[in-house]
Peptidase A1 domain-containing protein (Adineta steineri), 442 residues
Amino acid sequence: MICSMTVEISCKRISSSSSSSSDTTSSKIASIQNKATSVDENLINEMNSYWMGTISIGTPPQSFNIDFDTGSSDLWIPSIRCLSSCGNHSRYNANKSSTYQANGASFSISYGDGSFVKGYLDSDTVTVDGLSVVNQVFAEALNMSGFNDVSDGLLGLAYPDLANGGETPLFYNMYAQNLIPQPVFSFYFNPDSSVVPGGELILGGADTSKYTGSLAYVNVSTQGYWQFKVNSITAGSTTTICSSNCNAIADTGTTLILGPTSQINALNAALGATYHASTGLYSVSCSSRTQQGFPNITFTIGGQQFTLSVLQYFIIVNSGSSFTCYSVFGVSPLTNVWILGDYFLSRFYSLYDIGQNRVGFATSISYNYAPYVYPQTFQSTTSAASTTHSTTVSTTNGNTGSTSFTAPTTTVSTMTNSSKTMHRGIDWTILFSLIVIYIRLQ
């Protein structure tokens, strides 16, 4: 993690290759009859930066902390032969596994921020929450750079088209080996980092106790990533950020919510936030408006609205004399594609259905969680009485023209000292360790 004013976002890796081969995907899951039951893998919330779980590889099992990533398809972990570059990460020792099989093919993946993993492919038994997948191909990392996460490695849950080594992803083999009842998995992320467990991954189904209402489904538009069409994205009731040709990816391997440059600029302008090269983030003084003066951001997906409010899309930092609101909306590395990362997925339960090539979203039971905020964080109603904020924004990619946003001056509503965890301001060190904004690309 970094200690300078340049912020990196360590969490998040999204594969840059893509493909649209529905026939290949269908053939991998066709004609499989299953009678297994779904299982849940408890997850650990690492400061809302990423959620990780535990898997084991080999016989007897060797345990690893893993970042489950819907934005890639490979499984890789550090090798015992990886020396200084693997730091304190747990390492796989093939000599200690009776089920190890050599593969020999080389493996190499690099990312846009200069980080990389190099090694070779092997196969062994991989176990996730008691489900043991035999002969699973994975990568042993001999050399890795730029990975300072608590997690040891990464387990991809995207389509096979993104597999860097051409191997069949673990989830496909899990279903093919009759370990789960249906080719679906789902995530619940709790944004309250003090709660243990911090979330869960359900393999083979969904946990209906973790969301309210019903799941709204949308078909996958381009296989590779979990990519789909978004009906619209709006800021408040007057500013349309995107209304046509809106594409998005659900990516558990990205912390923030990212979008095309012009649309992100328009969205942050509606918040009064400006870009700062020193941090790589958009930010605004929290006291520039009342709490309710900041607009809700609404994503309409599958005809259903999914709305984020001010305490859900700002990271509030107490710098001593004032409060700075850092926007979780940043620029996507993919052209005309939004990446809905953990700050979206921690408010909305998500289900990924390979059998029907669709993604489902529902309101999480943790939707209303909010950190404690000091009463003086936002502008008071009294001081805001004679102040309005007008922001003119313009967007491209299907949206033209300008719209103005005037912030309302309604009464501030702040959280009281109740059962919520008291997060009394985040210092700079935690901010820098929490937010890493360089998306790692192949």
Observations:
- Confidence is low (pLDDT under 50) at residues 1-35, 385-442.
- The chain is about 10% helix and 40% strand.
- Residues 223 and 280 are 30 Å apart (CA to CA).
- The longest helix spans residues 261-271.
